[in-house]
Design brief:
Number of helices: 5
Number of strands: 4
Shape: globular
Radius of gyration: 16 Å
CATH superfamily: VSR Endonuclease
CATH architecture: 3-Layer(aba) Sandwich
CATH class: Alpha Beta
Strand content: 15-25%
Structural class: alpha+beta
Helix content: 40-55%
Number of domains: 1
Order of helices and strands: HHEEEHEHH
């Protein structure tokens, strides 16, 4: 009997990685997700640990084409060039990328939300 289940649209390896990243979220990711989830931030829908091309991004608002990345201390030096190249590639695909340090999210949550809201407001204005 032929297999009637269609092939997966999402590759198994990135899906497994996304699931692991969601399960092993940092405190900063948990805090920001508690604010972004369920359209709590001005009605915008966000997803977390989303695969885009070969990358898994921390948070993604499809409607605004906005990616939010949180960086820990490991991104300070060793991964800086990689993160910059990754950001350039995602921006070349038409996405806006915002980066915050984990400590910013934990210590200055309101300021981080204001920056995100400012970008979302600009998207709203350009859509009118």
């Amino acid at each position: 009997m032929p297999d009637l289940i269609p092939p997966r649209l999402i590759a198994t390896e990135p899906l497994a990685r996304s699931r692991a990243l969601r399960r092993d979220s940092t405190e900063a990711e948990k805090r920001l997700w508690s604010i972004l989830r369920n359209r709590k931030l001005e009605g915008w829908k966000f997803r977390r640990q989303v695969t885009i091309d070969t990358y898994v991004v921390d948070f993604f608002c499809i409607a605004a084409r906005l990616i939010i990345e949180l960086d820990g201390e490991q991104h300070a030096d060793a991964r800086k060039r990689y993160d910059e190249a990754r950001t350039r590639e995602l921006e070349a695909c038409g996405f806006r990328v915002l980066r915050f340090w984990n400590r910013e999210v934990l210590r200055e949550t309101e300021g981080v939300l204001q920056q995100i809201s400012r970008i979302l407001g600009a998207v709203n204005q350009s859509a009118k």
